[in-house]
Amino acid sequence: MPNLWFTVVDLPDAPTDKVSLENDKDATDLKRAIKETMPNTLADYNPAQLRLKARSHNETNDQARNLDDPEATISDVFKNYGDWVLVFLPSVEHPAKKHCLEEGWEVYTFKGSSVLLPTDIIKILNNNPFKPTPRSTFSTLLNAEVGNLINVKTAGEDSTIIPLMNLGQEPKHFAEGYQAGAFFVTEQMKGVWNELASDHQHSVKRILSGPMGIGKSYLAWFLAAMAYASGWPLLYIADAAVLAKATTLEAATEICYRFLALNQDILSPTQLEDMVAHAKSDPPETSCASAILGKILQQKNNKTLLLVDEHGALFDSNPPIPDMLPILSSLKNLNAWNETLNGARVVLTGTTHAKFEMTHLKNGMQDWVIYCNPLSPVTFGRLLDTILSHFHSDTCQNILISSARDKILRITNCMPQELVCLATTIGTSSLTISQINKKLEEFESLQYKECYNSATAHFESLPPNSKEDHCLALADMFLPSEKSRSSAQFDWQFWTLDWNALLALYKTCPLPQAYINALAEDNFKGLEFEDALFQQLLCNSQVTLTTTDLAGQKCNALHLDIQHYELFEDPPPRYEMNTLVRCSKRYPWFDYILGYKFFQVSLQDFSTHNTGSAKVEHAFDRNREWTPKNQMEYYLDAVFGGNHSANMIVTKHSNVNVKRFQVTKDGSHCPGFQIIYICGKPANTNHMQKFKEFPELRHISYCEIKSKLFQQCLELQNR
What we know:
This protein is α/β, with parallel strands linked by helices. A six-stranded mixed beta sheet has the order 19-20-21-22-26-27. Helix 13 runs parallel beside helix 16, helix 15 (about 405-410) packs parallel to helix 17 (about 435-460) and helix 17 (about 435-460) packs parallel to helix 20. About 35% of the residues are buried.
């Protein structure tokens, strides 16, 4: 008699044994023999209720086939199925199950298994309007590089829109209009995703912050799509306003719909049962949503993602929605996300006017904020080309507009929404380059007024103790340094708006009280003097300052005419003569440049300051492999054109190396060239030895700066 091995797969440890039957015995006889072989284990089961599958010894359980014919002989089993039988037990109706059935629960077949579920959850599973396209449609995202154009929609033959990648929900105005169903992968998208995808010791919480139109929702969608493509458990809420409901049940239902739509294909029957484990005491949707926000999205080692866009919609009411609906409390209190569950990833975005950051981020949580950057010039340029092709089919017209590319980049600040507004302003009619430039000027003027009024209104609405922090946040923007001046976390409201409008606002800001005190006591600290000097130079754009040589002897008066301000760029663009340029770390010898005038600013006297990398001599060094020019020549050529030569001529006189500056353009002397040192502390200017060494270097004393630039500040303080 042949031997048949069998395994009871529904029991713990899946016990295995064998039976011996003659070839003419059938499947019914086989079930009886199996029970007789395990009389104690199978005592509670009727043999007729056992369900059998069979496979060969070299196949897996997933490859087993149903023994559907009860009259199939043992010989048939060996021939058509295999020599290994899998035994499945009938479900025993426990009292709890009977109660559930009486309460309207149903047996639901999920991935080949019978699961007892509330009818409301079954309805969600069977008819979910948020069903995404398959994960395979997102596979191209996994290998996307910065600058790649990702198509998420396409037009059908009848002009209908066919989704190529659809998460079942979309942010407002996503991939519509000018972008024609596509978006560009940005540096920040890849950077944030790489951070989320990396292993961490703790759970990861991030808040994407920034003004309308900068691309927060595109960044959020990209992160959700990457998590979906990677097979992470994912809850994506495209608009948190859908959770702003009157009852917990309504909010929980919205969560269930979206989570089950995105994860139905990766959930196991056991996980589905666990989600409704407490539904006997709570409504099924509430039990399910609690399990989603708790056990499923908070795991150790296994990565998960909760992403809520337009998160600020939950904080428009008083009290906030999470205070009224406890199930949403973890969307307000981010400490609810267990630090030890290092697989959890939480990303919130779209915080309206930073209400959430201002009120609910405490004790270092500000480090979780990610400020969404404007597009890089390269990516912005590609977006510009896309928009031009959408608005203008005329190639000549596109060329005309492209010729104004640098100006467009500047006045839109690489903000996608600003570019769309500009394209709409230009319109689709044929224009000359003169007409296009006029449109750009009108747009820039309008943007300046709107931004200035908006920023001023926002500043005036701040409480008094917050205004000073925001003034310092502006200083951080215009005078970037390694150490932040401000604890204010809302600088995105500044640097993404019109630069000149915000500069105008900064000029109206009063000096911080600490700066006024330092001025009165003649005891500035480094950043304090730099900030105060910079702001007063902007406010006193036309000023004449007395200069001396390093021995303290008066020299020609210095007239400053400052009409614009820019941060140093590399390579430098064509700055105007009246543009004050703030130098960067890559240009350490000078702090500011105005035309041909190069300024050093320090609290120290010149003798102390002129050491190490700050030595003015290094500005004339030619030790760079990539250019035969020194940095001063490189800068002057880029800004003013022509061929500049900048040399320090050293001669010996009375045992002193006398160093004079010789700067020419196309062989002609540049009479406007000067190097000027500004000292930020009261001290006698009598550096005779340094004067002999640098007879042409000009010096502006602290007393001169105080009397010409800070007098009004002191008068206001004394009133």
